[in-house]
Design a protein that fits this description.
125 residues; mainly beta; six-stranded antiparallel beta sheet; elongated
C-alpha cells in the first residue's frame, strides 16, 4: 500500500505533507455467505515506512519550524467488508469500509478499500 497525506482543511495544527508505504500479509474469511455475496473479516501483519515534512510555514503559520521525519512501524491490522464473487466468474469484487492498522509507537491508520480479485480457478457449471 502506498499513500500520501496533507493537512488541507485542518487549521489547528501545523502543515503536514507525508507519505506511507506498507508491506503486509493479510487473510480474509467469508463469515456469512448468501449466494455470491459474503460478509468477510480478516487480519494480518504489516511493516510501514512513513516519511515527510511537518511545519512548512504557510499562510497561517509563517514562523513555525520545519521538521523532516522518517520512521518504521510494525503492527497488526483488522478489516471487514463485503465480497461479491459469482462462482462462474473469474472476478470477485470487494468493498471493505473498515480497515484499521495499529502499530508500534502509537501508529494508527484507518481507510476504506475497494478491491478487484482475479480467481485462479472458477467452479464448474
Amino acid at each position: 500500500m502506498i499513500g500520501g497525506f496533507t493537512s488541507i482543511g485542518i487549521t489547528d495544527t501545523r502543515d503536514q505533507f507525508y507519505r506511507v508505504t506498507s508491506l503486509g500479509v493479510n487473510g480474509f474469511l467469508d463469515v456469512i455467505k448468501y449466494k455470491s455475496l459474503s460478509l468477510i473479516i480478516g487480519t494480518g501483519a504489516f511493516a510501514n515506512y512513513s516519511r515527510g515534512l511537518l511545519g512548512t510555514g504557510g499562510e497561517l503559520h509563517g514562523d513555525s519550524d520545519s521538521e523532516y521525519f522518517y520512521k518504521m512501524y510494525y503492527g497488526v491490522n483488522v478489516g471487514t467488508g463485503f465480497r461479491i464473487g459469482p462462482k462462474t466468474s473469474r472476478f470477485a469484487f470487494e468493498l471493505k469500509p473498515i480497515n484499521v492498522y495499529l502499530g508500534t509507537d502509537y501508529f494508527t491508520l484507518g481507510f476504506m478499500q475497494v478491491n478487484i480479485d482475479i480467481k485462479l480457478r472458477t467452479a464448474k457449471q
